Amino acid sequence: MKAEVRPLGMTIGSIRSAFPKMMADLFKDKEIKYTFDQMVVLLIVRFCQKTSPVQQDIAEIMNKNKSVVLRMIDVLEQDGLLMRSTDPNDRRRNIITLTKKGYEYTELTIACDHEVTVNLMEGLNESDVKTFFKVFDHIQSKMGVK
Amino acid sequence: MKAEVRPLGMTIGSIRSAFPKMMADLFKDKEIKYTFDQMVVLLIVRFCQKTSPVQQDIAEIMNKNKSVVLRMIDVLEQDGLLMRSTDPNDRRRNIITLTKKGYEYTELTIACDHEVTVNLMEGLNESDVKTFFKVFDHIQSKMGVK
DNA sequence: TGAAACAGTTGCAAAAATCAACTAATACAT
DNA sequence: ATGTATTAGTTGATTTTTGCAACTGTTTCA
């Protein structure tokens, strides 16, 4: 473990700006008028259903502050991609649920994502790709700890 | 495999603002008064010496527009971390060179980066880490093509 | 019962990114 | 060689994004 850890900064630095840009370009092609981050919100709502994250949670997952997330969700709600409803068990919390339309947008996003990913991963063997995702998830979970 | 695989975008969506934030926190501790992005500029200048990227190139690498990079470089030049000089072979281009002070800041940045990275990679075995970086390199080269 | 904590909201201020227009230099096609 | 297009860099104005602090309503807990 001590051996090969090199600075991630530059590496991550480029992927972290390049990937969203590639996604944004694809969104434009397909006339999706939302930002990458807005679609990430939808993805989080969809894929973290079990824990049903509220705005605060989403903000933590995305490392944004809650005002930012609130404003993204305002737009998404206005456009009917998701719905807010007060949690009956804790009326401070907003339960966020995807609408049919919102779900469709997650599908579109995943399609774009897949397109970009396949492109980037082309030429690698499956097991390496698996490991990559594993490590990436690990990093993500470590970041959550703060 | 086809079922509910979390798209890469979701992970990237969560780490992409986390990493600069973690770096910024470390910078604050060590009283480095620059942003993560500014330090990335220095790193690019240092590590892409062979191709001696000009402002435009740096902008492309970082997926920012050239005005943004220009202003970052203004600051870095004012503070004596790098120098601009006109390329004698093409007087439109500015050759960017690190000063001694600038180099020292890249060292500091790399140290911070390493600290963060080690932390994030903790708990992974060496071969996974190796694979991860291998895949990362691959992705990066693919992104370069675009 | 009251203090502290928490999710959400709002408006304002600060920071960052974008855009269009411009200069100066170079490349290139005719 | 001449003029057109392209390129790197620069600037100022504008817009977008972000961050902060204060506030509400609700819950927790001592």
Automatic annotation (TrEMBL), chains A, B:
<keyword id="KW-0805">Transcription regulation</keyword>
<dbReference type="Pfam" id="PF01047">
    <property type="entry name" value="MarR"/>
</dbReference>
<feature type="domain" description="HTH marR-type">
    <location>
        <begin position="1"/>
        <end position="141"/>
    </location>
</feature>
<keyword id="KW-0238">DNA-binding</keyword>
<dbReference type="InterPro" id="IPR036390">
    <property type="entry name" value="WH_DNA-bd_sf"/>
</dbReference>
<dbReference type="InterPro" id="IPR036388">
    <property type="entry name" value="WH-like_DNA-bd_sf"/>
</dbReference>
<dbReference type="InterPro" id="IPR000835">
    <property type="entry name" value="HTH_MarR-typ"/>
</dbReference>
<protein>
    <submittedName>
        <fullName>MarR family transcriptional regulator</fullName>
    </submittedName>
</protein>
<dbReference type="GO" id="GO:0003700">
    <property type="term" value="F:DNA-binding transcription factor activity"/>
</dbReference>
<keyword id="KW-0804">Transcription</keyword>
<dbReference type="GO" id="GO:0003677">
    <property type="term" value="F:DNA binding"/>
</dbReference>
